[in-house]
Amino acid sequence: MARGDALGDQVADDLRRRIIVRELPADDVLVEAKLAEEYEVSRGPVRDAIRTLAQEGLVENRGRSAHVIGLHAHDVDELFSLRSALEHMALDSGSQKHRSRLVAELKAAVAEMDSAVDNSDPAAFTRADMQFHSAFLRSSELRRIHDVWSQYQRTIENLLLVANLDHTDLKPAKARHEQLTTMIEAGNDAAALAELEDHLDASRRRVRRDYAGEPDDGNADASSTSC
């Protein structure tokens, strides 16, 4: 494995992806020795990765073994409710503290989305999407809010990517991000907060439908792709 990040983080990243795409289904047992051999690391990084995934609610420790829990519709609802609360607070704070810097970061992310649209690349679009929304947290300078976001960001990103893979028209989602950026730049904060809440809820409903296979409990339209 590469040495840039902590080995435990790298193992956690790959296991998280495999759990979310259901390569590792619910109730699978994670065996430290087997995973250490597979990833060519000692048991320490595997143990660290399992601990991280347990904190994220993807794995459950049962005695001396760890079992995959996976994600279901109620988990999607909980994650997106948390995400909405965090982003709402962060945008409200960041737009007041560092509006110019925030707008510059949002425009840079939208430019990345534009490139992803041109290349019909949902993976690149999803990365740009998370770059866009993470800008709220960075500009807010609310450390504890940012820490909570960081804990669940990669799970949310993987969920969005899985849901986005079936969508080829990414232009409506890019347009919504452009609209939100325009509102923030103009100082129309009440409208921006309302728009953020609306398109995060539309995204939640679409992920419920496309990932969890559950009714979206609403009428999410095509423009809810990504977010």
Shape: globular
Q: How much helix, percentage-wise, in residues?
A: 55-70%
Number of extended strands = 3
Instruction: Work out the radius of gyration.
Output: 18 Å
Q: How many helix segments?
A: 9
Q: Unreliable runs, pLDDT <50, ≥5 residues? A: 220-224
Strand order of the largest sheet: 1-3-2
Helix-strand category: mainly alpha
Compute the average pLDDT. Answer: 90
Order of helices and strands: HEHHEEHHHHHH
Largest sheet: 3 strands, antiparallel
Beta fraction of the residues?
Answer: under 5%
CA distance, first residue to last residue: 31 Å
Note the main attributes of this structure.
single chain; 227 residues; mainly alpha; 9 helices; 70% helix; globular
Overview of this structure, please?
This protein is mainly alpha-helical and 227 residues long. Helices cover 70% and strands 4% of the residues. The protein is built from 9 helices and 3 strands. It has helices at 7-20, 32-39, 43-55, 73-97, 99-118, 122-140, 143-164, 171-185, 189-210; strands at residues 29-30, 59-62, 65-68. Strands 1-3-2 form a 3-stranded antiparallel β-sheet. The longest helix is centred in the middle third of the chain and has 25 residues, at 73-97. The protein is globular, with a radius of gyration of 18 Å.
Care to give the gist of this entry?
With 227 residues, this protein is mainly alpha-helical. The protein is built from nine helices and three strands.
Topology diagram in text:
Layout: H1 7-20, E1 29-30, H2 32-39, H3 43-55, E2 59-62, E3 65-68, H4 73-97, H5 99-118, H6 122-140, H7 143-164, H8 171-185, H9 189-210
Antiparallel strand pairs: 1-3, 2-3
Helix pairs in contact: 1-3, 1-7, 2-3, 4-6, 4-7, 4-9, 5-6, 5-8, 6-7, 7-9, 8-9
